[in-house]
Every structure is written in structure tokens, then in C-alpha cells.
Amino acid sequence: MKQSLIQQIEAICSDRGVRLTPQRRLVFELISKNKKASSAYELLEQLKAVEPQAKPPTVYRALDFLLEQGFIHRVESTNSFVSCCSFGEQKHFSHLLICDKCGNVVELQDDNLIALLDKNIDKHQFQFSNHVIESHGTCKNCSSLEK
Ligand SMILES: [Zn+2]
Ligand SMILES: [Zn+2]
Q: Signal peptide span per the entry (predicted)?
């Protein structure tokens, strides 16, 4: 875990005047350390190793906070969480490439794609709350292992 990542979110939290509690910080560290997207259950198990008294609401509250601040994304199709690759903006939409073999998740950001989606949604006068853009398949690593 790169120290700078934690320092970055600490700085953003103090700028925004929100509190990065030790538990929130720990859940974020676990998500960034895990190679695969982490489920709330996996996070709870990992958290318990450090804080035996941790309960599911502890994890859910930390996840809500991290999602709200834009530090992590929810992988809707697998109900798991990954850390965001750029937490500059409070909220942004990303395109996730999800490997079904190793569980690796890559985050892409294409403003043109998002603008196109917004335009199409506008045409229907639809009040949207969230875009979920996820592509499933096999990552480069896994597909080269098959050969
Ligand atoms: Zn992101
Ligand atoms: Zn893979």
C-alpha cells in the first residue's frame, strides 16, 4: 500500500471537513490492498483480524462514506468494491472492465462516453441518478495464460 494514497485521501477529507475515522481509513486500505474487488463480507473478515469487535454495520457505514466521497466504486454486477483511480472529483462515472477469471477490475474514464450517455438520457427527459457501465470478460493476463 503506497503511503501517498492514504495521504491523498486524508488531505481531501480535511479539505472537505469530513472525518476519516480509523475504521473508514482501514476499510479503504483493505480495498486498495486487495487485488480483486472486495465484497462487504470479505472486508468484514479482514477487518475482524485487526478489530475483533467489528460488526457488519461498521463495514457498511465505512463503505457508504467512502462511496459518498468518491474514494471507491461499487461493482454493481458482483456487489463488491474497488478503489477509485482518481479521487480528484467528488463524483464521477467510470467504466469498469471486470475479469471473470481473476476478478481484477480496471477503471476507465471516458468523458466522451459519459457525455454521449447524458445526451441520450436527456432526449428521454429522464432524471437519472446513476450510470452503471461494466464490461465482463477475460483480462490480458488471464487470456495470455490460456495460450
Ligand atoms: Zn473512479
Ligand atoms: Zn484476469
A: none
Distance 61 CA to ligand 2 centre (A): 30
Residue pLDDT, tens place only, 98-138? 999 999 999 998 889 999 999 999 999 999 888 899 999 99
Count CB neighbours of 100 within 10 A.
13
The ligand placed nearest to the CA atom of residue 144 is: 2
pTM of the model: 0.87
pLDDT tens per residue across span 85-96 = 877 665 788 899
Q: How far is it, in rounded angstroms, from Cα 85 to Cα 12?
A: 14
pLDDT, position 146: 76
Crossing angle of the two packed helices 56-68 and 40-50, in degrees rounded to 10: 110
Residue with cell 461494466: 134
pLDDT higher than 50, residue 1: no
Residue 143 · residue 103 · CB < 8 Å = no
